[in-house]
Amino acid sequence: MPDFDMVLVGGTGDLARRKLLPALFDAHRAGLLHPAARILATGSHPSTTEEYVATLEQGMRPGLEHAPPGDWASFVARLCYVQADARQPEHFDALARKVLSRQPEVVVCYLATAPHLFVPICEQFGRTGLNQSNVRVVLEKPLGHDLDSNEAINAAVARYFAEEQIYRIDHYLGKESVQNLMAIRFGNALFEPLWRREWVQDVQITIAEELGVEGRGDFYDQTGALRDMVQNHLLQLLCMVAMEPPTSLTEDAVRDEKIKILKALKPITPQEVAEKTVRGQYRAGAIAGKPVPGYLEEPGIAPDSRTETFVAIKAEIANWRWAGVPFYLRTGKRMQSRVAEIVIHFRDVPHAIFPRPLTLSPQNRLVIRLQPEESIRLYFLVKQPGDTVALTPTSLDLDFANSFKVRRAGAYERLLLDVIRGRLGLFVRRDEQVQAWRWVEPIIDTWADSSLPPKPYTAGTWGPAASSALLSRDDALWHEEV
Ligand code: BG6
Fold this sequence. Notes:
This is Glucose-6-phosphate 1-dehydrogenase. By secondary structure, the protein is an alpha/beta fold. The chain has 14 helices and 17 strands.
C-alpha cells in the first residue's frame, strides 16, 4: 500500500464521522495503511487536533468499544485537524504547504461536503498545486441536483483534474455482495445462458431502509429518494445485473459495458410517468414496534413538503438481451425492514406435467441479498415426499458469513483503499453519471409539474399501495420475504 496523505474536506461532518473515519480506522487496525500515512481532516471552524479528536471519539464511541485502546491511540496519531474555509485562500495555502512539504506518494482529497462547495474547493486545490498527477480527488454523491448542475460540477472539476484523477464514489459499488454479483455472473457458466429475455420474466431490485432522514432533514428535503438512491445506487445495481460480460476486469472494460445499459434504458416520457412510477412519503407509524413520526414532522422538513421518501419504477432496457423484461426498482425510507436485494424471476416451464403449487410468485427465483446479511438463495420445485405427485417449493441457500469466516471490508474501506491504490474500476465515470441523470430527469420534472402530492404510506410498511399495483398490472408481485 503506498504512502499517502488523505485530506478529508468536511472532516467534521456526518459522513466523515459515520463512515469515512471508521472505515480508515478499520483499515488501520487490519494493518492495511502505510505506517507514514496521515489523515488531514478539515473544517471551516478553528479547532486544535486534540479538540477534534475528542469530539470524534465521542461520535464514534459505540464502534470503538471493542477496539483495543492502543489501536485507537496509534490511529489518532495519524490525524491532524486543519482549518480550511472554502472562502479563505490562505487556509488552503497552509494546507497545501503541509502536504507538499512531506511529498507522500499519493495525495487523496476527499470532498465530503455539500456539492455547491466542490467547485470553489477544487479551484483552491488547483491554485495551490494540490492537483499534481499524484493527487486523486474523491467526489461524494449527489454530484449536482440535475443534469445541468452535474455537468457544471464535472466541467469545473475537469479544469483542475484529469479524468483519471477523479473518483466519483457510489458506495454500493464497494459492497462485497455487489462484486459477488459479477463473480456469480461471469465466474460461472451456469447462469449466463438463462440470464436473458427468453428465460427471465422480471428483475426486481429493492433497497429498503428502516431509517428515516436521521437529522439530515435539510439535505434530504432538497434531494428526495430519486436523486438520493435511484440516480446512483439503484441504477448502478441495475447495470451490474444487466450488462454484457466485459472482456476483462479492467476499469474501462467494465465501465464501457455499464454505460451501454444506461444508454439502452428506455426513456420514461412525461405521459408515462404516472403509469410507470410511484412516489410516496411516509406518515407516522411504527418500526420494530416503536412509534416513529411522519416525514412532515421530522426536523428540517417543510410542513407542506412534496419530497418523496419512496420510489418504485418499472424500467425497461431496449436491447436484444432484455427487450420486454421489466426491471422493477424500489427504494424507500421507514420501510418494514432493512433489506437490499436483487431478485431474478425466471419463467415458468413451457408445459406443466405436474400440478403447479398455488402461488402467484414464479417458482424459479434467484435472490441475491446484499443486506442485512449477504446470501444467495435459489428457489425451485421438488417432489413432495411420499405417495404423491405434488411439487413443493424449496431453496438452495448460501450464507456468505457462515461459509467464509474471514474479515470483510466495509464498502467505504474497500473504496478508500482502491483510491489509495489508484484503482478506478469501482468508481463512476463521468459519462455514466450524465446518462443516469438524463434518464431520471424527465421523472423529476414531471413530478415537479404535477399537482398530485406523493402517495402516503405508513412508516413500517412496504410503501404505498400503488407500488403493488404497479406490478399487479403486469401480473407480478414484489418478492417480500424477511
Ligand atoms: C446513501 C444515502 O447514499 O445511502 C442515504 O444518501 C442512505 O440516504 C444510504 O441511507 C444507504 O446506504 P446503506 O449502505 O446503509 O444501504
